[in-house]
Write a structure and sequence with these properties.
The protein has 370 residues and is of the alpha/beta class. It is built from 10 helices and 20 strands. The termini are far apart. The structure holds iron/sulfur cluster.
Amino acid sequence: MVSSKQSSEEALLARPHVRPAMLWEPVPGKPGWVRCNLCEKRCIIAPGRYGACGVRKNINGKLYTLVYGLLTAMNIDPIEKKPLYHFYPGSRVLSISTVGCNFYCKFCQNWVISQSRLEKGLYGVYKTPEEVVDAALRYRADGISYTYNEPTIFFEFMYDTARLAKKHGLFNTMVTNGYATPEAVDTLGSLMDAATVDFKGGGNKEFYRKYVGVYDPEKIYNTILAMRDKGWFLEITNLVVPKVGDKEEDVRKLSRWIVENLGPETPFHLLRFHPDYKMMDYPPTPLETLEKLASIAMDEGLKHVYIGNVLGHPLEHTYCPKCGYRVIERFGFTIVSWRLTKDNRCPKCGYKLNIRGEYRGRPTTPYSLL
Ligand code: SF4
């Protein structure tokens, strides 16, 4: 006799967005149990149970993704929105997401999708990689960005889409919390061209434990090194949460690590926090705090320090690290003035800036295709 659990799992397996997962292994000595090796949570999952991200399930001793192509967003964005300021500036990216996340940030701005496994169940509009790439080409995007929720948790769809996108001359970028395993980065390899890695609260361990639900943020550094070794272009952000995630020594330490491991010309964005989700009673980050942290990052040797989520701030712009000339002027996500030469040199002193790709000059306001 077929149990109701069995028949509901059979029904689940018949859905197009339920696919065999990548990067998992059986657990020795525990028949039917699996270990997911996609992110550093490395969940050990009993039969019939889900991983911590809520979108990977052990069905009959095999791991499945439940969100293959189940999209919650498909938007055209300026690449500056990621933020990627030094990678094909002025280009347009088709941006996609699903539900779910491996982090539990209490301040998440996209909590409606990232945390919905807990509150609303799975939902989205089913698309194939062919449909996503076709949309990117039809709407004249320069690349695809895997973003809004943590793309690691929809790895299989990202992988297939990135492969197809490459064949059509599109670039791939991801916006990530940096908790993918080095194996996951290795599997993506040269399919991924760039990543924005988002720190929160300066990478402070206690902050991650209390507000993110992650106990070992140190692992993020290894993942970034794996990305670097694969040749991905990297920009680092840090969300500054007032009072609880704004320590000067943390930003100093993080800046020093970036200088030593990724180089002083790595773009570093200090992002202003706005009250959201479970942290509605916290104020937006004071401007003085952001400016103080920016000056600390510069003291540590970083040449491209930006302040994000503060419209019209002078640290939205790019300055030549050698002569200080304002070479790119921005207002929010829009480039309002581009002064570099065709090969990304300062027109005043000839210094070559750390910018990958040419200026595309195709401004857009974000709009949805779903
Ligand atoms: S991707 Fe999900 S299931 Fe896999 S280790 Fe991370 S949280 Fe666990």
